[in-house]
Protein: fumarylacetoacetase
Organism: Rhodopseudomonas palustris
Amino acid sequence: MHPNDPRLRSFVDVKPESDFPIQNLPYGVISTASDPSPRVGVAIGDFVLDLAALQAAKLLDLPDGVFAQSSINAFMALGLAMWSTTRARISALLRHDNPELRDDAALRARALVPMSDAKLHLPLRVEGFTDFYSSKEHATNVGTMFRDKTNPLLPNWLHIPIGYNGRASTVVVSGTQIHRPRGQLKPPSAELPSFGPCKRLDFELEIGVVIGQPSAMGTTLTEQQAEEMIFGFTLLNDWSARDIQQWEYVPLGPFQAKAFATSISPWIVTREALEPFRVHGPTQDPVPLPYLQQQGPNNYDMALEVNLRTPAMNAPARISATNFKYMYWSSVQQLVHHASSGCAMNVGDLLGSGTVSGPAKDQLGSLLELSWNGAEPVQLPGGETRGFLDDGDSLIMRGWCQADGYRVGFGEVEGTILAAKS
Protein backbone atom coordinates (compact mmCIF):
# COMPACT_ATOMS: atom_id res chain seq x y z
CA MET A 1 0.00 0.00 0.00
CA HIS A 2 1.18 3.52 -0.79
CA PRO A 3 2.12 5.56 2.33
CA ASN A 4 -0.73 7.98 1.50
CA ASP A 5 -3.40 5.27 1.42
CA PRO A 6 -6.23 6.36 3.74
CA ARG A 7 -6.80 2.73 4.77
CA LEU A 8 -3.41 2.49 6.48
CA ARG A 9 -3.36 2.01 10.25
CA SER A 10 -0.43 2.03 12.65
CA PHE A 11 0.17 -0.14 15.71
CA VAL A 12 0.84 3.20 17.43
CA ASP A 13 -2.46 4.62 18.64
CA VAL A 14 -3.26 7.82 16.74
CA LYS A 15 -6.30 9.93 17.56
CA PRO A 16 -8.42 11.08 14.57
CA GLU A 17 -7.68 14.73 15.39
CA SER A 18 -3.91 14.17 15.57
CA ASP A 19 -1.70 16.03 13.09
CA PHE A 20 0.53 12.99 12.79
CA PRO A 21 -1.19 9.86 11.43
CA ILE A 22 0.72 7.21 9.52
CA GLN A 23 -0.20 9.03 6.29
CA ASN A 24 1.93 12.03 7.35
CA LEU A 25 5.32 11.04 8.90
CA PRO A 26 6.89 14.53 8.98
CA TYR A 27 10.61 14.88 9.67
CA GLY A 28 12.13 16.69 12.63
CA VAL A 29 15.20 16.67 14.88
CA ILE A 30 14.98 15.63 18.53
CA SER A 31 17.07 15.03 21.60
CA THR A 32 16.15 13.61 25.01
CA ALA A 33 17.44 13.91 28.55
CA SER A 34 18.70 10.32 28.37
CA ASP A 35 20.36 10.91 24.98
CA PRO A 36 21.19 14.59 24.34
CA SER A 37 22.64 13.92 20.88
CA PRO A 38 20.38 15.45 18.21
CA ARG A 39 19.02 12.97 15.68
CA VAL A 40 16.33 12.80 13.01
CA GLY A 41 12.89 11.39 13.71
CA VAL A 42 9.38 11.34 12.32
CA ALA A 43 6.22 12.16 14.24
CA ILE A 44 3.58 9.45 14.68
CA GLY A 45 0.66 10.22 16.98
CA ASP A 46 2.00 11.34 20.37
CA PHE A 47 5.43 9.80 19.68
CA VAL A 48 8.57 10.45 17.70
CA LEU A 49 10.08 7.52 15.85
CA ASP A 50 13.87 7.77 16.26
CA LEU A 51 15.25 7.04 12.79
CA ALA A 52 18.85 6.88 13.99
CA ALA A 53 17.82 4.00 16.28
CA LEU A 54 16.10 2.22 13.38
CA GLN A 55 19.16 2.68 11.21
CA ALA A 56 21.43 1.35 13.95
CA ALA A 57 19.15 -1.70 14.12
CA LYS A 58 19.64 -2.24 10.37
CA LEU A 59 15.97 -1.64 9.56
CA LEU A 60 16.72 1.25 7.21
CA ASP A 61 19.06 0.88 4.22
CA LEU A 62 20.78 4.27 4.07
CA PRO A 63 24.33 5.64 4.26
CA ASP A 64 25.76 5.28 7.77
CA GLY A 65 24.90 8.08 10.16
CA VAL A 66 22.56 9.96 7.86
CA PHE A 67 19.94 10.23 10.63
CA ALA A 68 22.40 10.65 13.52
CA GLN A 69 22.64 14.34 12.69
CA SER A 70 21.40 17.71 13.90
CA SER A 71 19.54 18.43 10.65
CA ILE A 72 17.77 16.61 7.82
CA ASN A 73 20.08 18.17 5.21
CA ALA A 74 22.18 15.04 4.68
CA PHE A 75 19.06 12.96 4.12
CA MET A 76 17.54 15.52 1.73
CA ALA A 77 20.77 15.53 -0.29
CA LEU A 78 20.21 11.83 -1.13
CA GLY A 79 17.48 12.80 -3.59
CA LEU A 80 13.91 12.23 -4.60
CA ALA A 81 14.03 8.44 -5.05
CA MET A 82 15.55 7.94 -1.60
CA TRP A 83 12.96 10.27 -0.01
CA SER A 84 10.13 8.16 -1.41
CA THR A 85 11.73 4.78 -0.69
CA THR A 86 12.56 5.74 2.90
CA ARG A 87 9.09 7.09 3.61
CA ALA A 88 7.56 3.88 2.27
CA ARG A 89 9.86 1.79 4.48
CA ILE A 90 9.06 3.84 7.60
CA SER A 91 5.36 3.55 6.81
CA ALA A 92 5.69 -0.22 6.45
CA LEU A 93 7.51 -0.52 9.80
CA LEU A 94 4.71 1.38 11.54
CA ARG A 95 1.84 -0.61 10.03
CA HIS A 96 -0.46 -2.43 12.42
CA ASP A 97 0.13 -5.75 10.63
CA ASN A 98 3.97 -5.60 10.41
CA PRO A 99 5.69 -7.40 13.35
CA GLU A 100 9.27 -6.12 12.65
CA LEU A 101 9.02 -3.16 15.02
CA ARG A 102 5.66 -3.87 16.61
CA ASP A 103 6.80 -7.12 18.23
CA ASP A 104 10.37 -6.08 19.11
CA ALA A 105 9.76 -4.66 22.58
CA ALA A 106 13.38 -3.65 23.22
CA LEU A 107 13.74 -1.76 19.94
CA ARG A 108 10.31 -0.22 20.32
CA ALA A 109 11.30 1.11 23.74
CA ARG A 110 14.43 2.70 22.24
CA ALA A 111 12.93 4.00 19.03
CA LEU A 112 9.47 5.28 20.03
CA VAL A 113 10.06 8.41 22.09
CA PRO A 114 7.05 10.04 23.77
CA MET A 115 6.61 13.51 22.28
CA SER A 116 6.48 14.91 25.81
CA ASP A 117 10.02 13.60 26.46
CA ALA A 118 11.53 15.00 23.28
CA LYS A 119 13.21 18.35 22.83
CA LEU A 120 12.45 19.61 19.31
CA HIS A 121 15.23 21.40 17.44
CA LEU A 122 15.44 23.43 14.26
CA PRO A 123 14.87 20.65 11.73
CA LEU A 124 17.18 21.83 8.97
CA ARG A 125 20.36 23.81 8.48
CA VAL A 126 19.01 26.85 6.63
CA GLU A 127 21.43 27.73 3.84
CA GLY A 128 19.49 30.70 2.51
CA PHE A 129 16.16 32.36 3.22
CA THR A 130 14.01 34.11 0.63
CA ASP A 131 10.64 35.62 1.48
CA PHE A 132 7.94 36.15 -1.14
CA TYR A 133 4.85 38.38 -1.38
CA SER A 134 2.43 36.09 -3.18
CA SER A 135 -1.06 36.58 -1.75
CA LYS A 136 -3.08 38.91 -3.95
CA GLU A 137 -5.38 39.72 -1.04
CA HIS A 138 -2.46 40.65 1.21
CA ALA A 139 -0.71 42.72 -1.45
CA THR A 140 -3.97 44.50 -2.25
CA ASN A 141 -4.63 45.29 1.41
CA VAL A 142 -1.12 46.63 1.97
CA GLY A 143 -1.24 48.66 -1.25
CA THR A 144 -4.58 50.12 -0.26
CA MET A 145 -3.28 51.16 3.17
CA PHE A 146 0.03 52.64 2.09
CA ARG A 147 -0.01 53.45 -1.61
CA ASP A 148 -3.07 53.91 -3.81
CA LYS A 149 -6.62 52.86 -2.88
CA THR A 150 -7.73 52.88 -6.50
CA ASN A 151 -4.72 50.98 -7.86
CA PRO A 152 -3.16 49.08 -4.93
CA LEU A 153 -1.05 46.54 -6.84
CA LEU A 154 2.23 47.73 -8.31
CA PRO A 155 2.48 47.19 -12.10
CA ASN A 156 4.83 44.20 -11.79
CA TRP A 157 2.87 42.24 -9.17
CA LEU A 158 0.61 40.29 -11.56
CA HIS A 159 3.57 39.36 -13.77
CA ILE A 160 6.26 38.24 -11.34
CA PRO A 161 6.54 36.53 -7.92
CA ILE A 162 7.91 39.38 -5.81
CA GLY A 163 10.45 38.47 -3.13
CA TYR A 164 13.53 39.56 -1.23
CA ASN A 165 16.52 37.76 0.26
CA GLY A 166 16.21 37.55 4.04
CA ARG A 167 18.48 36.28 6.80
CA ALA A 168 19.07 32.57 7.34
CA SER A 169 21.01 33.33 10.54
CA THR A 170 17.89 34.26 12.54
CA VAL A 171 15.56 31.43 11.49
CA VAL A 172 14.58 29.75 14.78
CA VAL A 173 12.43 26.83 15.85
CA SER A 174 9.01 27.07 17.46
CA GLY A 175 9.16 27.95 21.16
CA THR A 176 12.09 30.35 20.80
CA GLN A 177 11.32 33.61 22.59
CA ILE A 178 11.63 36.74 20.46
CA HIS A 179 12.99 40.01 21.78
CA ARG A 180 11.27 43.11 20.46
CA PRO A 181 13.68 44.56 17.89
CA ARG A 182 15.22 48.03 17.98
CA GLY A 183 15.70 50.13 14.90
CA GLN A 184 15.34 53.49 13.22
CA LEU A 185 11.84 54.91 13.54
CA LYS A 186 10.33 57.94 11.86
CA PRO A 187 6.60 58.41 12.30
CA PRO A 188 4.97 60.88 9.87
CA SER A 189 4.80 63.53 12.59
CA ALA A 190 8.56 63.45 13.31
CA GLU A 191 11.03 65.66 11.48
CA LEU A 192 13.99 63.32 12.00
CA PRO A 193 14.34 59.58 12.72
CA SER A 194 15.15 58.20 16.17
CA PHE A 195 16.48 54.84 17.36
CA GLY A 196 14.54 52.67 19.78
CA PRO A 197 12.29 49.67 20.33
CA CYS A 198 9.75 48.83 17.62
CA LYS A 199 6.26 50.02 18.55
CA ARG A 200 4.33 48.19 15.82
CA LEU A 201 5.42 44.57 16.07
CA ASP A 202 3.51 42.15 13.87
CA PHE A 203 3.38 38.55 12.67
CA GLU A 204 2.92 37.16 9.18
CA LEU A 205 1.27 33.78 8.67
CA GLU A 206 3.27 31.92 6.02
CA ILE A 207 4.24 28.51 4.74
CA GLY A 208 7.94 27.71 4.41
CA VAL A 209 9.10 25.71 1.40
CA VAL A 210 12.12 23.49 2.08
CA ILE A 211 14.44 22.90 -0.87
CA GLY A 212 15.90 19.40 -0.83
CA GLN A 213 17.92 19.33 -4.05
CA PRO A 214 20.35 21.86 -5.55
CA SER A 215 20.48 23.58 -8.90
CA ALA A 216 23.71 24.74 -10.49
CA MET A 217 24.57 28.40 -10.99
CA GLY A 218 23.65 29.47 -14.51
CA THR A 219 20.84 26.93 -14.95
CA THR A 220 17.10 27.48 -15.04
CA LEU A 221 14.24 25.21 -13.94
CA THR A 222 11.15 23.75 -15.53
CA GLU A 223 7.95 23.31 -13.57
CA GLN A 224 8.68 19.60 -13.07
CA GLN A 225 12.28 20.18 -12.03
CA ALA A 226 11.23 22.78 -9.47
CA GLU A 227 8.52 20.51 -8.07
CA GLU A 228 10.98 17.64 -7.65
CA MET A 229 13.45 19.89 -5.79
CA ILE A 230 10.89 20.66 -3.07
CA PHE A 231 11.34 18.28 -0.14
CA GLY A 232 8.49 19.59 1.98
CA PHE A 233 6.72 22.38 3.81
CA THR A 234 6.71 23.91 7.28
CA LEU A 235 4.76 26.60 9.13
CA LEU A 236 6.54 29.96 9.14
CA ASN A 237 6.02 33.17 11.11
CA ASP A 238 7.75 36.11 9.44
CA TRP A 239 7.92 38.48 12.41
CA SER A 240 7.74 42.06 11.14
CA ALA A 241 8.52 45.44 12.71
CA ARG A 242 6.08 47.60 10.78
CA ASP A 243 7.34 51.01 11.92
CA ILE A 244 10.95 50.12 11.12
CA GLN A 245 9.79 48.69 7.79
CA GLN A 246 7.80 51.81 6.84
CA TRP A 247 10.87 54.03 7.23
CA GLU A 248 13.48 51.74 5.63
CA TYR A 249 11.74 49.93 2.78
CA VAL A 250 12.15 52.64 0.12
CA PRO A 251 13.90 52.07 -2.25
CA LEU A 252 15.20 48.51 -1.75
CA GLY A 253 12.54 46.80 0.37
CA PRO A 254 12.58 45.14 3.83
CA PHE A 255 15.85 44.93 5.73
CA GLN A 256 16.12 45.20 9.54
CA ALA A 257 12.34 45.11 9.95
CA LYS A 258 12.40 41.41 9.12
CA ALA A 259 15.98 40.35 9.87
CA PHE A 260 15.63 39.94 13.64
CA ALA A 261 13.66 36.64 13.69
CA THR A 262 11.75 34.13 11.58
CA SER A 263 10.10 31.20 13.38
CA ILE A 264 9.33 27.81 11.82
CA SER A 265 7.57 24.73 13.14
CA PRO A 266 9.76 21.77 14.15
CA TRP A 267 8.16 19.39 11.63
CA ILE A 268 8.67 19.33 7.88
CA VAL A 269 5.76 17.69 6.11
CA THR A 270 6.93 16.06 2.89
CA ARG A 271 5.57 17.12 -0.46
CA GLU A 272 4.61 13.48 -1.07
CA ALA A 273 2.40 13.44 2.04
CA LEU A 274 0.56 16.52 0.74
CA GLU A 275 -0.03 15.06 -2.72
CA PRO A 276 -3.73 14.15 -2.07
CA PHE A 277 -4.47 17.78 -1.19
CA ARG A 278 -3.17 19.52 -4.31
CA VAL A 279 -5.55 21.98 -5.97
CA HIS A 280 -5.36 24.59 -8.70
CA GLY A 281 -4.75 28.12 -7.48
CA PRO A 282 -6.60 31.28 -8.51
CA THR A 283 -6.84 32.09 -12.21
CA GLN A 284 -3.84 34.17 -13.18
CA ASP A 285 -4.79 37.15 -15.31
CA PRO A 286 -2.83 38.24 -17.26
CA VAL A 287 -1.39 34.87 -18.21
CA PRO A 288 2.21 34.71 -16.90
CA LEU A 289 5.17 34.63 -19.25
CA PRO A 290 5.87 31.13 -20.63
CA TYR A 291 8.56 30.23 -18.09
CA LEU A 292 6.07 30.80 -15.24
CA GLN A 293 3.11 28.99 -16.76
CA GLN A 294 2.19 25.79 -14.92
CA GLN A 295 0.26 22.73 -16.00
CA GLY A 296 -0.34 20.98 -12.69
CA PRO A 297 -2.29 21.91 -9.55
CA ASN A 298 0.51 23.40 -7.44
CA ASN A 299 -1.54 24.90 -4.60
CA TYR A 300 -2.75 22.99 -1.52
CA ASP A 301 -6.08 22.86 0.31
CA MET A 302 -4.44 23.58 3.65
CA ALA A 303 -6.31 25.12 6.60
CA LEU A 304 -4.31 27.67 8.58
CA GLU A 305 -5.10 29.49 11.81
CA VAL A 306 -3.52 32.07 14.09
CA ASN A 307 -4.10 32.16 17.84
CA LEU A 308 -3.05 34.94 20.21
CA ARG A 309 -2.56 34.66 23.98
CA THR A 310 -1.88 37.75 26.08
CA PRO A 311 -0.42 37.59 29.61
CA ALA A 312 -3.94 38.19 30.97
CA MET A 313 -5.51 35.27 29.09
CA ASN A 314 -5.78 31.69 30.34
CA ALA A 315 -6.02 30.26 26.83
CA PRO A 316 -5.22 31.47 23.32
CA ALA A 317 -7.96 32.98 21.16
CA ARG A 318 -8.20 32.44 17.42
CA ILE A 319 -7.85 35.70 15.51
CA SER A 320 -7.55 34.40 11.94
CA ALA A 321 -8.44 31.29 9.92
CA THR A 322 -7.54 31.04 6.25
CA ASN A 323 -6.32 28.58 3.60
CA PHE A 324 -3.13 28.19 1.58
CA LYS A 325 -5.17 27.51 -1.57
CA TYR A 326 -5.75 31.27 -1.97
CA MET A 327 -2.10 32.01 -2.86
CA TYR A 328 -1.82 33.66 -6.27
CA TRP A 329 1.76 32.54 -7.00
CA SER A 330 2.48 28.88 -6.18
CA SER A 331 5.60 27.57 -4.46
CA VAL A 332 6.68 25.97 -7.74
CA GLN A 333 6.38 29.30 -9.56
CA GLN A 334 8.35 31.00 -6.81
CA LEU A 335 11.19 28.48 -7.16
CA VAL A 336 11.15 28.63 -10.97
CA HIS A 337 11.41 32.40 -10.83
CA HIS A 338 14.10 32.32 -8.14
CA ALA A 339 16.36 30.29 -10.42
CA SER A 340 15.34 32.06 -13.64
CA SER A 341 18.37 34.38 -13.61
CA GLY A 342 20.72 31.45 -13.05
CA CYS A 343 20.68 31.80 -9.27
CA ALA A 344 22.00 28.60 -7.67
CA MET A 345 19.70 26.89 -5.17
CA ASN A 346 21.10 24.82 -2.31
CA VAL A 347 19.95 21.90 -0.19
CA GLY A 348 18.44 23.55 2.88
CA ASP A 349 17.24 26.74 1.23
CA LEU A 350 14.01 28.04 2.74
CA LEU A 351 11.38 30.01 0.79
CA GLY A 352 8.69 31.91 2.66
CA SER A 353 5.38 31.95 0.81
CA GLY A 354 4.54 35.47 1.87
CA THR A 355 1.62 36.32 4.11
CA VAL A 356 -1.35 33.99 3.53
CA SER A 357 -4.51 36.11 3.49
CA GLY A 358 -7.94 35.18 2.21
CA PRO A 359 -10.79 37.32 0.91
CA ALA A 360 -12.72 37.68 4.20
CA LYS A 361 -11.93 39.90 7.19
CA ASP A 362 -11.27 36.93 9.48
CA GLN A 363 -8.96 35.30 6.90
CA LEU A 364 -6.18 37.90 7.06
CA GLY A 365 -2.68 36.72 7.93
CA SER A 366 -1.23 39.73 9.80
CA LEU A 367 -2.24 42.21 12.47
CA LEU A 368 -1.44 44.97 9.99
CA GLU A 369 -4.49 43.81 8.02
CA LEU A 370 -6.65 42.52 10.87
CA SER A 371 -6.41 45.87 12.70
CA TRP A 372 -6.09 47.92 9.50
CA ASN A 373 -2.75 49.39 10.61
CA GLY A 374 -3.99 49.80 14.17
CA ALA A 375 -7.10 51.81 13.29
CA GLU A 376 -9.49 48.91 14.04
CA PRO A 377 -7.94 46.96 16.96
CA VAL A 378 -8.70 43.25 17.23
CA GLN A 379 -11.13 42.47 20.06
CA LEU A 380 -9.98 39.70 22.43
CA PRO A 381 -11.79 37.76 25.18
CA GLY A 382 -11.83 39.66 28.45
CA GLY A 383 -12.05 43.04 26.78
CA GLU A 384 -8.45 43.43 25.65
CA THR A 385 -7.62 44.73 22.18
CA ARG A 386 -4.56 44.56 19.98
CA GLY A 387 -3.50 46.72 17.06
CA PHE A 388 0.00 45.25 17.22
CA LEU A 389 1.80 42.86 19.58
CA ASP A 390 2.63 43.76 23.18
CA ASP A 391 5.47 42.32 25.26
CA GLY A 392 4.37 39.01 26.75
CA ASP A 393 2.03 38.17 23.88
CA SER A 394 2.33 34.69 22.42
CA LEU A 395 1.47 33.81 18.81
CA ILE A 396 0.53 30.22 17.91
CA MET A 397 0.03 29.19 14.29
CA ARG A 398 -1.34 25.83 13.18
CA GLY A 399 -1.96 24.21 9.82
CA TRP A 400 -3.38 20.96 8.46
CA CYS A 401 -4.92 19.25 5.44
CA GLN A 402 -8.14 17.43 6.26
CA ALA A 403 -8.99 14.06 4.74
CA ASP A 404 -11.82 11.62 5.47
CA GLY A 405 -11.03 10.31 8.93
CA TYR A 406 -7.54 11.77 9.36
CA ARG A 407 -5.56 14.97 8.92
CA VAL A 408 -2.03 15.68 7.74
CA GLY A 409 -0.83 18.49 9.99
CA PHE A 410 2.22 20.59 10.83
CA GLY A 411 1.94 20.83 14.61
CA GLU A 412 2.40 24.45 15.59
CA VAL A 413 4.85 27.34 15.49
CA GLU A 414 4.83 29.43 18.66
CA GLY A 415 6.76 32.47 19.78
CA THR A 416 6.44 34.79 22.77
CA ILE A 417 7.48 38.43 22.64
CA LEU A 418 9.97 39.67 25.22
CA ALA A 419 10.91 43.28 25.89
CA ALA A 420 13.64 44.82 23.76
CA LYS A 421 17.16 44.25 25.02
CA SER A 422 18.74 47.36 26.49
Observations:
- Residues 27-121 form a domain with the SH3 type barrels. fold (CATH 2.30.30.230).
